[in-house]
C-alpha cells in the first residue's frame, strides 16, 4: 500500500472511531448573519414596540448600533453568552416575557438569535 492510501485509511478510521461523518471535518461552520437572519426576526417579532424614538424600555431593536447600545435595563446582550443576554432570555422558555403584543418567536428563531450571541454577536 502506498503512503497516500495508508494516510487516507488512517484518517477515515479515526473519523469513524470518533463518530465524525465522512467529510464533516472539511466543512466550514457558517456564522449566523446579523443582517440577513437576526435583524429580520427582530424587526418582525419585536419592532412594533422596540423601534424608533418611543421604543419600550428605550430598547431599539432596529439596528445593530441601537441593540449594542441597549436600553434602560442595560445591554441587550453579553457577547458569547446567550444565557446572560436579556435579548435571549426574554424570548426563551415555556412562557417567554417577550414579545408581549405578538406571538412568541419560534424555537428556530430563538436558536438563530442565541447562536448569533454565542458566536460573539458580530455585525455581519
Major beta-sheet overview: none
Radius of gyration: 20 Å
**Low-confidence segments, ≥5 residues, pLDDT <50?**
5-17
The proportion of strand residues reads: under 5%
Give average pLDDT, whole number. 86
Fraction of helical residues: 40-55%
Quick synopsis:
The chain is built from five helices and no strands. It has 124 residues and is mainly alpha-helical.
Describe this structure in words.
The termini are far apart. Helix 2 packs across helix 5. About 10% of the residues have low confidence. This protein has 5 helices and no strands. The chain has 124 residues and is mostly helical. The chain has 2 domains: 29 residues, no CATH class; 85 residues, no CATH class. The longest helix is centred in the first third of the chain and has 16 residues. It is globular, with a radius of gyration of 20 Å. The chain is 41% helix and 0% strand.
List keywords for this structure.
124 residues, mainly alpha, 41% helix
Layout of SSEs?
Elements: H1 3-18, H2 34-46, H3 64-69, H4 86-89, H5 107-118
Helix pairs in contact: 2-5
Amino acid at each position: 500500500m502506498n503512503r497516500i492510501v495508508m494516510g487516507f485509511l488512517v484518517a477515515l478510521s479515526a473519523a469513524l472511531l470518533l463518530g465524525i461523518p465522512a467529510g464533516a471535518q472539511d466543512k466550514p461552520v457558517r456564522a449566523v448573519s446579523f443582517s440577513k437572519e437576526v435583524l429580520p426576526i427582530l424587526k418582525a417579532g419585536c419592532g412594533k414596540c422596540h423601534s424608533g424614538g418611543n421604543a419600550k424600555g428605550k430598547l431599539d431593536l432596529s439596528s445593530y448600533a441601537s441593540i449594542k447600545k441597549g436600553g434602560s435595563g442595560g445591554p441587550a446582550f453579553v457577547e458569547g453568552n446567550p444565557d446572560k443576554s436579556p435579548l435571549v432570555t426574554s424570548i426563551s422558555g415555556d412562557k417567554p416575557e417577550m414579545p408581549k403584543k405578538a406571538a412568541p418567536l419560534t424555537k428556530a428563531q430563538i436558536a438563530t438569535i442565541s447562536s448569533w450571541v454565542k458566536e460573539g454577536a458580530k455585525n455581519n
